[in-house]
Amino acid sequence: MSKLSIIVFSGTDDKLIPVGVIAQGAAALGMDVQIFVTGWALTKFIKKPANPVWPKEFESMVPLLMEGMKKNNAPSWADMLKEAKSMGAKVYACSLMASVMGLKREDFNELVDDIVGVATFLQNAEGGQTLFI
Amino acid sequence: MSKLSIIVFSGTDDKLIPVGVIAQGAAALGMDVQIFVTGWALTKFIKKPANPVWPKEFESMVPLLMEGMKKNNAPSWADMLKEAKSMGAKVYACSLMASVMGLKREDFNELVDDIVGVATFLQNAEGGQTLFI
Amino acid sequence: MSKLSIIVFSGTDDKLIPVGVIAQGAAALGMDVQIFVTGWALTKFIKKPANPVWPKEFESMVPLLMEGMKKNNAPSWADMLKEAKSMGAKVYACSLMASVMGLKREDFNELVDDIVGVATFLQNAEGGQTLFI
Questions:
Q1: Please, are residues B68 and B37 in contact by the beta-carbon 8 Å criterion?
Q2: Which domain of life is it from (chains A, B, C) (predicted)?
Q3: Shortest Cα–Cα distance, A41 to chain B (Å)
Q4: Nearest residue, CB atoms, A69 vs list B100, B129, B130
Q5: Which fold has domain C3-132?
Q6: pLDDT tens for residues C15-26?
């Protein structure tokens, strides 16, 4: 079984869509999927998540994107991630950045399986492929 | 022969330069190169491509970049991609995001070889390296 | 020993933090780490580096981030990179983009080991994992 790891750093909502799509697609193919949430993205995995944030360069296209997602009955990135998790994917929050941002275990929502350090993540990722999003 | 896959999500023109450079360089080394275009980047692979979009943070440096590209006779990212394709690289548009954005096969330009789903892409990418740009 | 390569294109200071953290973590695990600096990121590896640049979308959160880094005694990304280099990591500047930006060998600071082309980088990266940041 091949391994796919995703480091999610970007906190804009557009980039969470490919995180969900790729995680779900890879898990459905039987890949061993782990997601390491760090940086701004941590603000999207807490009980009181940040409001949607879109890249300044493409703000004018966001309504088209949202309408297209709805028309295609595309699930939200969080629902795709839940689906991936139901097939074995794991989601970890980065311990260093959680601490830097003052986030504790109880601040994270049910998407997060655990808080781990970068060394643990890198060791889990060995021998597979890793994306930085 | 080693495999290099590139997921191109960002639609700003600066990030299309490394897509072209890396695809051409890898193809020239005999690597098996596939490019999966999704998200905002789809707007750069259609017959009526979007106007150039630059990251807000570096807009003031764009004239210097463009002048430097010209002085160095650096080809455009599209020409580098054509060169990569002439050496065997393949360019695929993401079926889900194409549908979300209302883009059909005939909307894409000659750079695009086919429209495929993420599962097909991930299977093709197995055993190689994948970049998310 | 497994190989980890990082292409650093983004020039915003937030994304240099994971470059430092991952490079140091991977080097400490005994991985063979190489960093290929290109695009806007080149402006952060010169003797007169550009002023800090933050993503427009998260500018309001930067003071919280900086305060958290200080409270956690987190080293700067440059210090983490120096630590990684002391354990064998290598940092290369991209020859094409250096030329495009009018940067010569003597313009780069002590973090940069050499200026290399993309073909050399890709060959060094073969058989490992590569991140694009």
A1: no
A2: Archaea
A3: 16
A4: B100
A5: Hypothetical Protein Ychn; Chain: A, (3.40.1260)
A6: 999 999 999 999
Residues of A with CB under 8 A from a CB of C: 7, 9, 11-12, 38-40, 43, 53-56, 96, 99-102, 117-119, 122-123, 125-132
Judged against a pLDDT cut of 70, whether residue C73 lies above it is answered with yes
Can you give C74-114 as a three-state secondary structure string? CCCHHHHHHHHHHCCCEEEEEHHHHHHCCCCHHHECCCCCE
Residues from chain C that touch B64, judged by Cβ atoms under 8 A, are: 101-102
- Reported ipTM: the value is 0.96
Q: Which residues of A touch C21 (CB under 8 A)?
A: 96, 118
| Span A22-79, pLDDT tens digits | 999 999 999 999 999 999 999 999 998 889 999 999 999 999 999 999 999 999 999 9
Kindly state the tokens that stand for C107. Answer: 């313009």
Q: Which of B2, B14, B25 sits opposite C118 (nearest CB)?
A: B25
Rounded to two decimals, the pTM is: 0.97
- Please answer yes or no on whether B18 and C12 come within 8 Å at the CB atom: no
Question: Which residue reads 């000659």 in tokens?
Answer: B110
Residue A116 phi, psi (nearest 5): -135, 165
